[in-house]
Amino acid sequence: MYESDITQFIKQLKVEKPTLEAEQRQGRALLWDKAPIDLDERARAAQSRVQQQPYVYQGE
Description:
Elements: H1 5-16, H2 20-31, H3 39-47
């Protein structure tokens, strides 16, 4: 059965480094998998935010 060069490379890489998939999952969890958003806390933060002036560097 035919296997492309890329498929062979990936299989060889997984054999040489068996922890590769676990490391990838750990990296994904670090960057992408986030805790659910608390909507009450988010609304409170939005209400307590101070409005910024349109032009910050304008002297009064």
